[in-house]
Structure formats: C-alpha cells, structure tokens
Amino acid sequence: MPAETNQTDNRPNTASDDDVAKFTALADTWWDEHGAFKPLHQINPVRVAFIRQHLIEAFVLDADNSKPFQGLTVLDIGCGGGLLCEPMCRLGATVTGIDAGEKNIRIAQSHATEQGLGITYKHVLPEDMSQLGQQFDVILNMEVIEHVSDPALFMKASSDLLRPCGVMFIATLNRTLKSLALAKIGAEYILRWLPIGTHDWRQFVKPSELAHWMRPYGLTIKHMTGMQYQILQDCWQLSPDLSVNYLLCAEKSESP
User: Fold this and answer.
1) What is the DSSP track for 182-218?
2) Cα separation of 141 and 126, whole Å?
3) From CA 2, how far away is CA 15, in angstroms rounded?
4) pLDDT in tens, 6-65
5) Which of 157, 205, 225, 240 could tie 127 with a disulfide, CB 3.0–4.6 Å?
6) Quick one: DSSP state of residue 11?
7) For residue 139, what are the contacts with CB-CB under 8 A and spacing of at least 6?
8) How far apart are CA 119 and CA 116, in angstroms?
C-alpha cells in the first residue's frame, strides 16, 4: 500500500497523508483473510506465481528448487503488512519491506517474527531510501502507485533503488470506465469488498502513463497481463484484459 512516511523538510515527496491514514486505520486487519484486505489475500497466489515465473526467466533460476530466489535481494515498496514479503522470503530471497505507515511496519515485523522469517522492515519513503545508495535485484510495486501523490517522482525513486539489469514488478488499476464501474463503484459500494474511499478513480494509472514515467530510467516493459475475478470459481486469474487490474514485469537497462 502507499509507500510514504513522515517527511520533515520541504523536499518534494510521494506522501499522500489521506492514503497513509486510510491504511493505517486498517493495519490491524492485514492478516485477516476475511477482513478489509480479503481481495489482496485472494490475488496473492496469482501475483506470486507471476513474479516467480518471470524472475526464473530473467535470472535463469532453477525452477525445480523449492527456494529459487536464493541470492536475490528483493525490496517491496509499500509492503503493508508483509503479504508479499513473506512468500518472497519463503522462496529464498533476502527481503526488505518499506511502507509509509509506521503501524503497518510494526504489524508486518511482528507477523514475520511469529513465522520465523528474517525479513527487514523499515518505515521510510522510497525517495529517502534511495539517498542511501542501496540497490536491489528486484523491486515490487504492487497496488501502490495509485495511492501516491507524485507518480513520476515515485517511479524515479523506485528506479534508483533497482540495480542495472534488475527487474521491477508493478500492479495497479487502469483508468477506464470499466474500472470505475467494477473496481470503484462495484468493489466499494455494491459488493463491499473494500472500505468506501479506498481508491480514487482519478488516480488510477493507464499503461501508457506508466510506460512514460518508466522510460527515462531505462525501464522496459517485458511482460504485461490483466487480472480478472472469476465469479463462479471465486478466484482471480490472469487475463489478456487490461481494462481493470493489470500487472507487469519490467527490466532495467545497464545504463538509462
């Protein structure tokens, strides 16, 4: 969720106080599979499978290894309660999660400790973390960019944290009439999958906009797919339809 934190100076930042407050208020329910974050729990297997497949391809990893990500460093920006950090760690990666909400970080760290997982969690903005010079093999920006105040700055900061030839995954919502009907009105007001006010449709991101923000930093989209909810099966699946939810895999060139 939104990857911002308390900023004490006047530098430009990606902070969205309203979105940070929304998710902080829900922080205690991150690991409740039937609570406010039920949709994320439902799409997590699809997200993890997509990430696994394309990291194995990009880094030529052993698909038969139960921990194929050994040796990879992963940064999950806007990690929330750690819903993606934990499976990445179980797949062998060295994982760091950062988030705007201090309470989110506390919840994530507590749950990881209970599970015996060695994940590093930090309450820090990506643009502040990028000033430290650390870079990662893999960046996860999953359901985050539609919650930040400055998407272009957010993409720059995220790219600065990705090493050359590294891989970035992004999942977000397309700004279409279909997404307004399904992801905003349907999900929040009719089906009540999400608390009302979770999303602002005006902040949804078209793939062309995302590509525009990525291009200056040497990021090239390699794979893009939609995600659709299958009512009869009560599950999410990958789909060629990008009009509502979509996710992508991008690679960073050796030099922008």
Assistant:
1) IIIIIIIIIS-SS-TTS--GGG---HHHHHHHHGGGT
2) 11
3) 8
4) 444 556 677 678 778 888 888 899 999 998 888 899 999 999 999 999 999 999 999 999
5) 157
6) S
7) 74, 75, 77, 158, 161, 162, 166, 167, 168, 169
8) 9
Beta bridge partners of 95: 74
Terminal alpha carbon distance of the chain: 27
The average pLDDT across 166-178 equals 96
What pTM, to 2 d.p., does this model score? 0.91
CA–CA separation, 249 vs 214, rounded Å? 12
Task: Locate 150 and state its tokens.
Answer: 């400055």
Of 14, 1, 215, 21, residue with least CA distance to 128: 14
Burial (Cβ within 10 Å: 0-12, 13-18, ≥19) of residue 126: buried
CB of 176 closer than 8 Å to CB of 244: yes
pLDDT digits (tens, 9 = 90+) for 87-122: 999 999 999 999 989 999 999 999 999 999 999 999
Tokens of 178: 């279909």
Alpha helices in 80-166 (DSSP H): 85-90, 102-115, 126-129, 151-160
Domains of the chain with bracketed CATH: 17-252 (3.40.50.150)
**Does the CA dihedral 157-247-142-251 come out positive or negative?**
negative
Distance CA 48, CA 51 (A): 5
User: Residue by residue, what is the 3-state secondary structure of 13-67?
Assistant: CCCCHHHHHHHHHCHHHCCCCCCCCHHHHHHHHHHHHHHHHHHHHHHCCCCCCCC
Rounded to the nearest angstrom, the gap between the alpha carbon of residue 201 and the centroid of all alpha carbons in its chain is 18
Q: Is 116 in a helix, a strand, or coil?
A: coil
